[in-house]
Design a protein that fits this description.
19% of the residues lie in helices and 28% in strands. The strands form four sheets. The chain has a seven-stranded mixed β-sheet with strand order 2-5-8-13-16-18-19, with no helix packed on it. The chain starts with 5 loop residues before the first strand and ends with a strand.
Length: 192
């Protein structure tokens, strides 16, 4: 098992003794999820014209100042926030979800349509490991990428510069630069 991609949910020694006690890393992640859920709940009910309030909450969620000319339109959801890296001029439309515990990087000029989901964590497929571990890998979206409405980007995916992910596409594999990816399994349809 690749230790970099797996997090044990329960303390291994206590689990061996029959006790289901959360492991330290998982417990810390769970605390952060609760904190960020409270912050995004507040963000998502602000009046649309409260730009200062929105910026203040987003900076708490991200743990740092927003880069220049970043736009995030609520409602916006993330589970961690501290591992979401945004370049300048990133645009994130309404109702997007970022599960960023393993890290998400959006390069400068990235545009993301409404209802898009970027997921860096999941569970192993093996039934014996499903409830024991979380698995994850970072997502890297290069500069000037467009991600269409309702697209889903899965753990470990890299999307090359200037590419377009069509609306509704599920991206499970890396996308080469200057490509159009579409369909339920994210197939490269065209290169430029």
């Amino acid at each position: 098992m690749d230790a970099d991609r797996f997090m044990q949910i329960h303390d291994a020694e206590l689990l061996a003794q029959g006790e289901r006690v959360l492991g330290a890393e998982f417990a810390a992640m769970s605390r952060r999820v609760l904190e960020v859920t409270e912050l995004t709940s507040r963000l998502n009910v602000l009046p649309f014209d409260d730009e200062a309030g929105r910026t203040r909450l987003l900076e708490q969620i991200l743990g740092r100042p927003l880069p220049p000319r970043v736009t995030i339109s609520p409602p916006f959801f993330t589970d961690h926030g501290l591992r979401l890296e945004l370049g300048e001029r990133v645009f994130i439309n309404q109702n997007c979800t970022f599960l960023d515990y393993a890290g998400i990087r959006l390069g400068a000029g990235v545009m993301i349509g409404p209802n898009a989901t970027l997921i860096t964590m999941g569970h192993p497929v093996d039934p014996g490991e499903r409830r024991r571990y979380l698995s994850g890998a970072p997502i890297d979206v290069a500069e000037n990428v467009w991600i269409g409405a309702g697209a889903t980007i899965l753990p470990g995916v890299s999307i090359g510069r200037d590419s377009v992910v069509a609306a509704g596409t599920v991206v499970a594999d890396d996308v080469p630069e200057s490509s159009l990816v579409a369909g339920p399994k994210g197939t490269v349809l065209r290169r430029w």
